[in-house]
Design brief:
Layout: H1 2-10, E1 15-23, E2 28-35, H2 50-59
Antiparallel strand pairs: 1-2
């Protein structure tokens, strides 16, 4: 299930790399998503949205608890 989710996350627009560490024992883990975004040049340009990541997580039966961006 984790591998399937990783492949789906890689298909999200602007996602460059996805790193997942998951423990079956603890039933928890973390996901690091690296993006390459295009600069916004005009109104209406598409920007990366973390809600698309949350959608993939929920679809695969995972519940995001904490989110942070660097």
């Amino acid at each position: 299930n984790v591998n399937k989710m990783q492949e789906e996350l890689k298909k999200v627009q602007f996602v460059y790399e996805v790193l997942i560490k998951f423990s079956d024992e603890k039933k928890s883990g973390y996901i690091k998503v690296i993006t390459h975004e295009q600069p916004v040049k005009q109104e209406g340009d598409y920007v990366f949205s973390n809600s698309s990541l949350k959608t993939v997580l929920l679809k695969n039966g995972f519940t995001p608890i904490r989110y942070s961006a660097e």
